[in-house]
Amino acid sequence: MESKRKVNINSVGYEEKEILLFLEKNGKCLYGNIFKGLKLSQMKGAEAMLSLISKKYVTNVGKSSFYELNVELVK
Questions:
Q1: Strands 58-60 and 66-69
Q2: How far, in Å, CA of 28 to CA of 65, rounded?
Q3: Which residue of 27, 43, 54, 66 is most buried, as measured by CB atoms within 10 A?
Q4: Per-residue pLDDT tens for 15-55?
Q5: What is the pTM for the complete model shown?
Q6: Tens digits of per-residue pLDDT, 62-73?
Q7: Element (H, E) at 24
């Protein structure tokens, strides 16, 4: 089994941190439900998600609108 890269939770911005912790707690989630659950605006949420996806901290599950953690969080 491949081990996931470790990421210090304090090395990311506030919105990114909230999304990572949300996904850690809830597992894979629909894109829009992440923002809704965190009460993030669509603009702030989308910006944070794009950043997390580009860093490969979060990944799309298959060809769906579900996203999940792609790293192990270090607190």
A1: antiparallel
A2: 10
A3: 66
A4: 999 999 999 999 999 999 999 999 999 999 999 999 999 99
A5: 0.92
A6: 888 899 999 999
A7: helix 14-26
